[in-house]
């Protein structure tokens, strides 16, 4: 993915503007968005829900991103007098490859440099069966419930295993909605301190290893309880899923990350906030009006019409003002002097 950072040629040492308008991704969006918008209700609303109003603004802002004639800043070096033009960016998360890539890097550095305590951490992933995902697609408010429930499972585990009374766990949780081929697959990535903090600031790690099966059992119970309470499923659905040999629910518990392994922690922070797609895995065939997209490891390729590709793509744009990143427990982020400024930057 490209970024908005200035690029210097080794031979000329001149600033070279990134040119998003020449990328296959940009060209596909530009060529087919108007047709996509006209045909969405007829072709895609039943599968993906209605076209949310703010989607159009996100796409038009992306098409203006990095283009000089849409606005720029003139930068001048006070020492040598050299000047260059820097095109304005759209800052559209999860849709603009350049702006989201910059957000990923900034988030990883900030999280490791000013938020996470120097204690062991652990990566958790909470996922659900396909039969339940449609409820989260058509009601995005349920994503908040998924985040809350995942945190409650982790919180209850650490509190129950901590030897210190009134201790508090801490975690950073990220909601992701995408699967390998841009299918709608809501799941949670959580980077949690592997233990609890006491009121005096001391850290207590659990004495035993984590039993993922126990966490999964609690997670399943809480998800069913929430969906039943909202009237979205019946006890018959619960019995059906419970009867399957593989229910589709899953809880992944990663290995403990040593506090001295800052590189692994930062890489994980970037991973959990990554974009829903990769330009490197996409190929655009304008003459055939199609897009092909490789699987994560390049073993398989899926073919989309351009309109199908866009429908899948925009389903992962968060709601306007929707938070995909949440802090839970004794998280020191709010005590960071730059927290308010960076929070605004990351939410744009």
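Q: What amino acid sequence fits the structure above?
A:
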């Amino acid at each position: 993915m490209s970024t908005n950072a200035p690029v210097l040629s080794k031979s000329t040492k001149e600033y070279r503007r990134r040119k998003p308008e020449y990328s296959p991704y940009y060209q596909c969006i530009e060529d087919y968005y108007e047709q996509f918008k006209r045909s969405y209700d007829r072709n895609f609303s039943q599968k993906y829900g209605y076209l949310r109003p703010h989607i159009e603004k996100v796409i038009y802002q992306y098409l203006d991103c990095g283009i000089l004639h849409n606005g720029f800043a003139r930068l001048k070096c006070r020492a040598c007098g050299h000047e260059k033009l820097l095109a304005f960016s759209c800052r559209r998360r999860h849709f603009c490859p350049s702006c989201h890539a910059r957000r990923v890097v900034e988030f990883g550095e900030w999280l490791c440099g000013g938020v996470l305590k120097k204690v062991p951490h652990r990566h958790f992933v909470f996922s659900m069966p396909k039969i339940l995902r449609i409820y989260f697609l058509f009601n995005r408010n349920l994503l908040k419930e998924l985040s809350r429930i995942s945190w409650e499972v982790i919180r209850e585990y650490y509190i129950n295993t901590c030897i210190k009374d009134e201790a508090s766990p801490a975690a950073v949780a990220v909601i992701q909605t995408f699967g390998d081929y841009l299918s709608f697959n809501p799941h949670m990535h959580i980077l949690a301190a592997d233990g609890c903090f006491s009121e005096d600031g001391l850290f207590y790690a659990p004495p035993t290893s984590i039993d993922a099966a126990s966490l999964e059992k609690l997670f399943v119970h809480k998800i069913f309880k929430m969906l039943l309470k909202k009237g979205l499923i019946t006890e018959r659905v619960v019995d059906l899923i419970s009867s399957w040999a593989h229910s589709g629910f899953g809880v992944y518990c990663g290995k403990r990350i040593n506090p001295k392994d800052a590189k692994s922690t930062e890489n994980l922070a970037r991973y959990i906030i990554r974009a829903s797609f990769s330009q490197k895995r996409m190929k655009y065939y304008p003459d055939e009006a199609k897009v092909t997209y490789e699987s994560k490891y390049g073993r398989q390729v899926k073919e989309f019409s351009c309109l199908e590709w866009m429908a899948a793509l925009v389903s992962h744009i968060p709601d306007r003002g929707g938070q995909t990143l949440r802090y839970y427990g004794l998280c020191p982020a709010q005590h960071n002097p730059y927290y308010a400024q960076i929070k605004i930057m990351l939410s744009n």
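Q: And what stands out in the fold?
A: Residues 24-43 form the longest helix (20 residues).
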